[in-house]
């Protein structure tokens, strides 16, 4: 009998191993493990000219979302340690020198928000309220407001936020990659009448995993990141940013990104009357935290923009994500494409990951703070000045400071950062262009007005019809001064570097079409 049991046991293990091997073989072409194997070292983070990156805190255990309290201290949901910690920079050197445990024995805290004297913390089963009555930096009272959320399956983080009318909202992710949920509260945003979590209702549905929630500082509208499903290939479906409207349906599981029928659960009409995303992003980037920049320390082009943290991919043959991007705004209108802001957690070899960005917060000093739950760091990104901008203003020339590229070969989208001494319609940068080494015009993006109050500024354009290895020059033109100043030379495959553009390089292109219309200052 004992021998028979051993035989049966060995057979069961063998079946499981074979089944696991076959399952992995079926999806291995769509999987990478670099995120899971992240080495947790300090990353060499790259940011635009004039910005500086430093480590604000280290040695944390899986820090998730972060938020500044009313006294300017940074509160961290330290998920790996089951606690909330407070970080303080007492001497103003940009690095935390005081760490204190605000509350411990909290199961896997992910999000936290301050409201009327208390902290509200999202945990897998619900929401906990923490109150520090005597102001000593330690919670005196904890109250479990919600403790009945389903915790099975995947997507167990819970993000809590407050609307301007005092109602509390909580996002609850799906239990699966794609399925029909038995509990209507999953893949949804819930709303409560007040901070006591009374009167639970569905606020919005069909959001597979809306990890990040934030309010627009002017309109009070609720914005969210949403993680798309897996196992549809390297580039589908796109990740999305949504404006979350009360009562709206966002489509999951039948409709993805407001326009794509799910291959398993989709049906004719599944995308009818479904909300469309504000912006789409590279599939499998895993956007998590997001924050509007409300400070005044960053240059004008970055103010009021939406910053998003990409946690990074596993379900993609070539890794992607592991960075912070921003969605530029033109006044109150968002753009349709994000641009890179802080990169380097995924190294250039695409095989080494040093960290995974999660949470974002704007500090009282105007810096942007980024949590990394793999390395255990909090990074601080501050603006320290831009010598290139000052040089451009003194020289009277327009300089190209950075070139970022997205899209596919022969139809690339270029985002070009320009510094120019604009004074109005009498002097302004009126275009940037892509030129071959032989001096042939490949693409020109005309600029419609002076950018006096927005320096440096970034404008996107395309499609640029070149291959990945084509060496080109990206330069800007100044009215009425013409060409000159700094350009960028390189290729999409190898990147772009500064290049001192001679004013007499291909000067005949100054008369080539397209020409900008009259300046609309």
Which strand order does the major sheet show?
Answer: 32-31-34-35-36
- Beta strands, count: 36
Oligomer, anyone? single chain
The CATH topology of the largest domain is what?
Neuraminidase
Q: Unreliable runs, pLDDT <50, ≥5 residues?
A: 1-29
CATH C-level class of the largest domain is Mainly Beta
What would you call the structural class?
A: mainly beta
CATH superfamily of the largest domain: TolB, C-terminal domain
The radius of gyration computed from the alpha-carbon positions, rounded to a whole number of angstroms, is 25 Å
Question: What's the average pLDDT?
Answer: 89
Helix content: under 10%
Most strands sheet: 5 strands, antiparallel
Please report the number of helical segments: 2
Number of domains: 2
CATH architecture of the largest domain: 6 Propeller
What shape does the CA trace take?
Answer: globular
How far apart lie the N and C ends? 91 Å
**Percent of residues in β-strands:** 35-45%
How would you sum up this structure, described in words?
This protein is mostly beta strands and about 525 residues long. The protein has two domains: about 350 residues, TolB, C-terminal domain (Neuraminidase, 6 Propeller); about 120 residues, Sandwich (Immunoglobulin-like), CATH 2.60.40. The chain is about 5% helix and about 40% strand. The chain has a five-stranded antiparallel β-sheet, with no helix packed on it. A hairpin with a 4-residue loop joins strand 3 and strand 4.
